[in-house]
Specification:
The chain contains 22 helices and 18 strands. It is an alpha/beta fold and 531 residues long. The chain folds into 3 domains: 174 residues, Thiamin diphosphate (ThDP)-binding fold, Pyr/PP domains (Rossmann fold); 141 residues, Rossmann fold; 191 residues, Rossmann fold. Strands 2-1-3-4-6-5 form a 6-stranded parallel sheet, with helices on both faces.
């Protein structure tokens, strides 16, 4: 067995379903060959960052690890945005880079130093310790606070035979162990037991199937509402009677917050929230699978434990709820009314609603890019299961939606995936249209085309500045898509959008809809949501 075979075997045990990236000429060629022998596909992406994002998407959906690889030097530098995304989205991926012998300067960077601020761990694969290194890398990615790890593969190492006796190996049971502490549990129980209108806030650490089941059961049996962060959409379904809306630390959710007397963050990580002062009046407690920073949120008590155990503790301590489900629904309906800001033409809100009317029941998932359209998409696209919406929230990086949709679609090829992206975001990863076409994936990309970096332009207006450096220029997205084998349509109004979505949903492969957006309501939408 070669070291490459060993690595691939342990990756498969950790739940990796594909390798993504752009290969070089060194050790990652051996990894690709070993993956082929093991029946693990390698998917060539147009950029290294997209490969890491696709791996991230698979890790979030499966609950296992993802994997990406790239060449040395420029490849390692290019993958950084995807690795940073995984770091701030708390996604366990293993990123392999080729490396240059220290005797040569050409294309040689200190990869470990480059990755150090954005990975849980970094190591170099060596023959004598390869078994221990890969096992430890996977544990570092998946245990405690999940995140990316980096493994440097010197030339020739992966092709060599495994040396030494059997050592530690990664196993599913081992990955299931989570650090547990009863930090301030007495204070937590006291706060919960004296609350009459507690409000759950489910976050990215509560998306496993067992976590979702525990939270839904708790809400239904005890009659308490739950808000969800962007990444936790679907933990409590949008249509559930106890769904209380989306929480981002913005203005629009304050009406729900003000009705409560205690906030219980369950799986909530501060990395998910808007970087603004905490304004919540009720005390807030944290129940999270890993320790979280308390600089941003003034937690009154914290418990570090698996979500299922936290839910049991909450259930035991709860008093009788005084919440009325009808009030919760009224507050959520009010939030939706605030978001539906009219415009002069085809608005982002109407694009989301029209697409959702035809697709939300049949499409497997939706992925959402950073940009002004995100405010409409995260609120108006209904989600019924965890990870039904994939979004970059911790890093909020542009160029996320299409690579994430590719990763998601590869897990369940027959099920369509919708990618909502701005034109600026798609310009950053347009080469991935070719990836989707080459893989024959049923990804429907809907481009919010307003020829501007609109969210930045709104902020310029808010500061009394003239728009500068935000005009993208016109792109004929239909022609660009068709040039790489993606069937495409253009929509300038609601009727043509309805026809385009209806036509695109019947096609077996990737499609694109160029939606000509009127952005005149962007400013009002941002004020309605964020204040």
């Amino acid at each position: 067995m070669t070291i490459a075979d060993l690595v691939i075997g342990q990756l498969r045990d950790a739940g990796v379903r594909a390798l993504f990236g752009v290969p070089g000429g060194g050790g990652n060629l051996d990894l690709i060959a070993a993956a082929g022998r093991a029946g693990l596909p390698f998917v060539l992406t147009a950029t290294e960052a997209a490969g890491a994002i696709a791996a991230l998407a698979q890790a979030e959906i499966t609950g296992g690890a993802g994997a990406a690889l790239t060449t040395l030097g420029p490849g390692a530098a290019s993958v950084v945005n995807g690795v940073a995304c995984a770091f701030l989205e708390r996604a366990p991926i293993v990123v392999f880079t080729d490396s240059q012998p220290s005797a040569f300067e050409h294309q040689r960077l200190d990869h470990a130093a480059l990755m150090d601020p954005i990975v849980n761990w970094s190591a170099t694969l060596e023959p004598a310790t390869a078994r221990e290194t890969i096992a430890r890398a996977i544990r570092k990615a998946m245990q405690g606070r999940p995140g990316p790890v980096h493994v440097d593969c010197p030339a020739g190492t992966a092709a060599g035979d495994v040396a030494g006796p059997d050592g530690p190996a990664y196993g599913r049971a081992e990955a299931g162990r989570i650090f547990r502490s009863s930090m301030a549990s007495g204070d937590l129980e006291r706060l919960i037991s004296t609350s009459r209108k507690p409000l759950l806030i489910a976050g990215l650490g509560a998306r496993r199937a067992a976590d979702t089941s525990a939270i839904r059961d708790l809400c239904a049996r005890r009659g308490i509402p739950a808000m969800v962060t962007y990444k936790a959409k679907g933990v409590v379904a949008d249509g559930d009677e106890w769904f209380a809306g989306v929480f981002t630390n913005a203005a629009i959710e304050q009406a729900v917050i003000d009705e409560s007397d205690l906030l219980i963050g369950i799986g909530l990580d501060p990395v998910e929230l808007l970087p603004r002062p905490w304004k919540g009046k009720p005390p807030i407690v944290s129940c999270n699978p890993w320790p979280v920073d308390e600089m941003h949120i003034p937690f009154a008590a914290r418990l570090v434990a698996p979500v299922t155990e936290a839910a049991r503790l909450i259930d035991t301590a709860l008093a009788e709820s005084q919440w009325d489900a009808r009030l919760v629904r009224t507050l959520v309906d009010w939030q939706m009314q605030q978001i539906r800001v009219p415009g002069d033409g085809l608005t982002a809100q109407r694009v989301v609603e029209i697409a959702a009317a035809q697709l939300s029941g049949s499409s497997g998932r939706v992925t959402v890019d950073a940009g002004a359209h995100m405010l409409a998409a995260t609120a108006l696209w209904p989600v019924s299961d965890p990870n039904g919406m994939l979004i970059s929230n911790g890093l909020s990086t542009m160029g996320f939606a299409l690579p994430a949709a590719i990763g998601a679609s590869l897990l369940d090829r027959p099920t369509p995936v919708v990618a909502f992206t701005g034109d600026g975001g798609l310009l950053m990863c347009a080469g991935e249209l070719l990836t989707a076409a080459r893989e024959k994936l049923p990804v429907m990309t809907i481009v919010f085309n307003d020829a501007s970096l609109s969210l930045i332009e709104i902020k310029q207006h808010a500061r009394g500045l003239a728009p500068a450096g935000v005009a993208l220029g016109q792109v004929d997205w239909r022609k660009m898509a068709e040039a790489v084998g993606v069937e495409a349509w253009t929509a300038a109004d609601e009727a043509s959008l309805e026809r385009a979505v209806a036509a695109a949903r019947t096609r077996p492969g990737p499609t694109l809809i160029d939606a000509k957006i009127d952005g005149s309501n962007y400013g009002a939408t941002l004020r309605a949501v964020r204040g």
